[in-house]
Design a protein that fits this description.
Length: 324
Amino acid sequence: MKVKFWGVRGSLPSSLSPAEWASHTEGVLRNFFASGYRDLSQISKYIQSVETPMLGGYGVATTCVEVQAGRSQIIIDGGSGIRNLSEQIMSGTTGRSKGPFHIFMTHFHWDHVIGLPFFVPNFIPGCEVHYYAVQSELPDLIRGLFRKPYFPVPFEALKAQIHFHVLAERQPVKVDGFVVTPYKLDHPDPCWGYKVEGGGKAYAHCVDTEGTRVTREDLGPDLPLYQGIDLMYFDAQYTLPELAEKANWGHSAAQVGLDIALREGIKKVLFAHHDPGARIEHVLELKRQTREYYESRLRFANEKGEKLPAVAWDFAHEGLEVSL
Ligand SMILES: [Zn+2]
Ligand SMILES: [Zn+2]
């Protein structure tokens, strides 16, 4: 299974301003010389030695995730990240420009739908696009995105064959070689995470969620979303103090996801839904706090003679691709 993160920001697409990029570039150049490099021929080597976010940041685009296994593909959410995926599809390099495309919607907040009118396969004759969601209003909600004066092309003018599939809560569906099951997340408007199984692996999509239900008892029928998982994508928009301040805003902190991962033996976790105001340094600070928390959890367990499973975790950046 391969999972590619086309958009990892939350709430609103957001970039550094030109002045902030200039200041960031100055820091990168200073670091080039501070690292002992001296001439132009060493630039590529330097760039390869630095983690992508340290150079290019965590990304601009909002939630869109592509899951592939062999020739099978599903897409989760249509945030602004879906535009770059659309460009790749239309470039012809993927060999599936006519689809069928399967787009699973978690919910319909702007940051998860804003890219859909820019998903070019919607406009291509002979192309097949399937939309899936638990929310029974799915057809109206998608149609509403293509409506004047918000968008110039009405839904009726789309040339692709578009199909809507309203999913039953917590019932698996088989789609293009995957088994996909929606489980409820903790968000102010109903939001459904997805467990995606395929290629012998399992991916849990847990964005947007506040993670107010953490214990197995509280999670109840939604617990399987977190069990038997190879990679979990978890909402970590806030620090722990921010999470306390922003109760009921529907977003979580990395520590909450780590607790679940440690208990359920989730092998790998990527944190995302970065705040639109979160600059590179802010995400690095979240990472530092998460590392501190993770190490303290391991230390306490060790002192009590318990063994916690190792969790490989990081903060996701736009364009990141993970092979499981
Ligand atoms: Zn969101
Ligand atoms: Zn939301």
